[in-house]
Design goal:
Length: 493
């Protein structure tokens, strides 16, 4: 792909350091690790391999900043900072999108399309800097007692984010941190750190005070574990797997830190026989195949009413065959590679398990070779005739694999849809308002889409039921979760 070699931004080449206390520095150990382009397996950059010692330096810098001049910044000051950051992020968005595509493989059309959405997210948090102020609730106490409740920033927040959409995830920590006057240490995923490092450069340009936002790159069981366990971190905001969440919950016990957890999903997407298949087929397909299935809300259990099951599978198969898979730098590509060889092996292992358990492979299921062989590409894959008890219908695959499961009635659909340990999202496709209402009420998940799949608005927010985690991201509730509340009783007699 000639564009790859000619337009790699200067930023991507060379070594990338840790961003601590406003300064760029190597890891204390001096170690580095490789950033690999998943589209071709080639080295993109060497990244500082941060560990517990670096996390400690970053937390100290964040604490100093929290107690320093930053604490005297007014909501208006922080709002202006967010607006300056907004303008710089918008100005450099093509570059951020390109870095993201090179680093984690999503098609350039997809990463560039985030421009407006990220703008909306930053402006949302800019609008929240004065939110949640002092209130004067009534009381029933004798005498003349005035009661007030105040809000105060929690302190130092640790952000631990995954690789599937860093351009988005980084803002779920940075936005509420800056809106409330907290400070943060962010640990990006080892497989996709580069856009967060470039963002840090833009933050400096925007006038971010030293230490307010720190980035320590490294691995989960080193830097990640140290951040989760650090006793001077007041909150950890984590997005990732259930297994890692369990470790983070255990580590949080050291100082009873607050947690926000957005975990996996095995979301049901339910198509009724009366649905408009012209929108349901591509909508349901891209609700999984977008980002090559590496989407936490992917509607990977696709329930289709029995009467249209065969027709739907056929149309879904045909649609999948039209999708262009390849290096995401090519603007015609719709599906990029998986993030790594490890992820590729995991996805192919699930495809094998699906076949062994008797699901019908209607489309795909293979690694792509030829000129794509050096990268980690898997065909869009459709299993049909799947039972909800099969492994491929129970475990999160995080790859371009759809399991089509037939159902008969609304009650069946809801019973099967809710028969999962997860509850992140769900979808329903129907022309009937009453079916849409019943099913959207009945699905036990934090987000339900009707006749669409994937749109999210930062002002609305999202979160999980059951093992998909806790804490609401976006909306004023997200901002509130970065604030302490304090009641003051004032005897004014
Ligand atoms: P995924 O399977 O999607 O990579 P993970 O939960 O393993 O999800 O990773 C999400 C983030 O959590 C990454 O930044 C990773 O480095 C980090 N992480 C992994 N293990 C730990 C751990 N034990 N403690 C803290 N963070 C971790």
């Amino acid at each position: 792909m000639q564009i790859a070699e000619t337009i790699i931004p200067a930023f991507v080449n060379g070594s990338k350091q840790l961003f601590i206390g406003g300064k760029w520095q190597p890891a204390v150990s001096g170690k580095e690790f490789d950033a690999i382009n998943p589209a071709n397996g080639k080295l993109l950059a060497r990244i500082a391999h941060g560990d517990a010692a670096d996390i400690d330096l970053a937390v100290k810098a964040a604490r100093r900043a929290f107690e320093g001049e930053w604490s005297r910044w007014t909501p208006y000051d922080r709002q202006k900072l967010l607006l300056r950051i907004h303008d710089l992020v918008q100005k450099h968005f093509d570059e951020l999108a390109l870095i993201e595509t090179l680093d984690m493989g999503a098609p350039i059309t997809r990463t560039r399309a985030l421009k407006d959405w990220i703008s909306q997210v930053i402006l949302f948090f800019a609008s929240q800097t004065a939110a949640g102020g002092t209130e004067t609730p009534r009381n029933s106490l004798p005498g003349q007692m005035m009661t007030m409740t105040h809000r105060a920033p929690l302190g130092v927040v640790g952000g631990i984010i995954p690789w599937n959409a860093p351009l988005i995830s980084q803002w779920w920590t940075l936005g509420p941190t800056l809106a409330t006057g907290c400070t943060a240490v962010l640990k990006p995923a080892e497989d996709a750190s580069l856009s967060t490092l470039r963002l840090a450069e833009l933050l400096v340009e925007a006038g971010l005070p030293d230490g307010v936002f720190n980035v320590v790159t490294g691995f989960g069981n080193g830097a990640g574990g140290a951040l989760a366990a650090h006793e001077d971190v007041d909150k950890v905001a984590f997005t990732g797997s259930v297994e890692t969440a369990r470790k983070i919950i255990a580590a949080s016990a050291s100082n009873i830190k607050r947690l926000q957890l957005e975990l996996g999903g095995k979301s049901p997407d339910i198509v009724f026989a009366d649905a408009d298949l012209d929108i349901a087929v591509p909508g349901a397909a891209m609700g999984v195949f977008g980002n090559s299935g590496q989407i936490c809300v992917a509607g990977s259990r696709l329930f289709v009413q029995r009467g249209i099951h065969e027709e739907f599978v056929e149309r879904l198969t045909q649609f999948s065959q039209t999708l262009r898979v390849g290096d995401g730098l090519d603007p015609a590509v719709q599906l990029g590679p998986l993030i790594s060889e490890k992820q590729l092996e995991r996805v192919l292992k699930y495809v094998g398990v699906g076949r062994e358990e008797g699901a019908r492979l209607s489309q795909g299921g293979n690694r792509l070779g030829g000129e794509l062989a050096p990268g980690y590409f898997v065909e869009p894959t459709v299993f049909s005739g799947v039972h909800n008890e099969m492994t491929i219908a129970r475990e999160e695959i995080f790859g371009p694999v759809i399991s089509v499961i037939p159902f008969d009635t609304i009650d069946d659909a809801l019973r099967l849809a809710n028969d999962t340990k997860y509850g992140l999202a769900g979808g329903v496709w129907t022309r009937s308002a009453s079916t849409a209402h019943r099913v959207s009420q009945g699905i036990k998940a934090g987000t339900v889409w009707v006749n669409c799949y994937l749109p999210l608005d930062p002002n609305v927010g999202f979160g999980g039921y059951k093992m998909s985690g806790y804490g609401w991201k976006g909306s004023s509730e997200h901002v509130e979760s970065y604030l302490y509340r304090k009641a003051v009783y004032m005897n004014i007699a």
